[in-house]
Amino acid sequence: xxxxxxxxxxxxxxxxxxxxxxxxxxxxxxxxxxxxxxxxxxxxxxxxxxxxxxxxxxxxxxxxxxxxxxxxxxxxxxxxxxxxxxxxxxxxxxxxxxxxxxxxxxxxxxxxxxxxxxxxxxxxxxxxxxxxxxxxxxxxxxxxxxxxxxxxxxxxxxxxxxxxxxxxxxxxxxxxxxxxxxxxxxxxxxxxxxxxxxxxxxxxxxxxxxxxxxxxxxxxxxxxxxxxxxxxxxxxxxxxxxxxxxxxxxxxxxxxxxxxxxxxxxxxxxxxxxxxxxxxxxxxxxxxxxxxxxxxxxxxxxxxxxxxxxxxxxxxxxxxxxxxxxxxxxxxxxxxxxxxxxxxxxxxxxxxxxxxxxxxxxxxxxxxxxxxxxxxxxxxxxxxxxxxxxxxxxxxxxxxxxxxxxxxxxxxxxxxxxxxxxxxxxxxxxxxxxxxxxxxxxxxxxxxxxxxxxxxxxxxxxxxxxxxxxxxxxxxxx
Length: 478
Description:
Blueprint: E1 2-11, E2 17-25, E3 28-34, E4 48-51, E5 55-59, E6 61-66, H1 82-93, H2 98-114, E7 117-124, H3 130-140, E8 143-150, H4 155-158, H5 165-171, H6 179-193, E9 200-202, E10 205-206, H7 214-227, E11 231-235, H8 239-249, H9 252-258, E12 266-270, H10 276-284, E13 288-291, H11 293-298, H12 306-311, E14 316-318, H13 331-341, H14 355-362, H15 364-369, E15 387-391, H16 403-409, E16 416-421, E17 424-428, E18 431-432, H17 437-454, H18 456-477
Parallel strand pairs: 1-4, 1-5, 6-7, 7-8, 8-9, 8-10, 11-12, 12-13, 13-14
Antiparallel strand pairs: 1-2, 2-3, 5-15, 15-16, 16-17, 17-18
């Protein structure tokens, strides 16, 4: 399939605005023709021609930390810090069935694509439903780095929470998969899905260092080395994690490093509470950090010093995290929060982030997080054709003064007109083409009552544990 996007403005790889036309052949940007195309016929006799008058083309935005399962649980418990909040998200998650997972993946894909997000890194906890999730991604046309979580240490064994015997007995009835079972699971998943249609990539994904035994991390290193997998994990999201990991693990980054995982293949989400030595280790190893400002704020986890990380030369991508501890899956919102949060308390305005910095975080550094920096994140010849067309005829773009600044400070996704992923239209004229948006929304609304009814006993168990987690939390926060 060949597509000629004629006479548009585009954001080039230098973060400058360029006028020209884009020729897409199959899945890639084959040619960028500068200036105005005045010929009556399309370039190279392209089969489809898109008139680009009043359109701005940007690279597809990349959501570098995301949990698809959460899309059915918007608006639930969002008034706890991470440690007690986890009780509830686990309770809801245990109620999910295969069809719920498919709907949740596709619901998230709809929201992301209509907001100009073409790729996501899905840190996925429900590994037994991985096939269902990947089938849903394949149908949606989204690009995904799929990162099934591996862990074998539950929170109550890592955190210093004092639980009564009856609760411990109930918790101990659950058994996490062994490192050998996880290895076999990954091997089968890789056989079935790795790089399928160029849009699906599998990543090795420890849940978090403190939730993985030495055997589990050793197996992760083995998978990464044997199959060339990139690695994604949560890291030092909260102050409690930082304090306890220092005592129990001699530091989370050091713990990962002792298992050969601190290298350029690694991407870490949050990294709010890094010690200086840990930051230097990540920097030296060319690790990518993923900033999640909305979940960090909603859960009260803290404010990551992103400007400091960037000034050191670390690649920092952006994520929306989960729907039940975040807002919309909208990287325009995330960019805006990132640039404004960075300025709070920083009196030296020479250190403030600029709009071009955070736009790069949502695109080029997002590609680094997915291990695809040579293929994604820029409107450039040879790159995969993941493109977003914005209609600039609305009030947001009137007048048009500084495009990058207006993308970050003024745009909210309403201008997204069409989205191309790998040379295929998934959104056109604001309409989802790849899947049936109306049917998916109808199904989600229809099954909501049944799903939440299945959560009742799980939520009761979470409530039973809550006082003990509160006590533990306050003992560390005071």
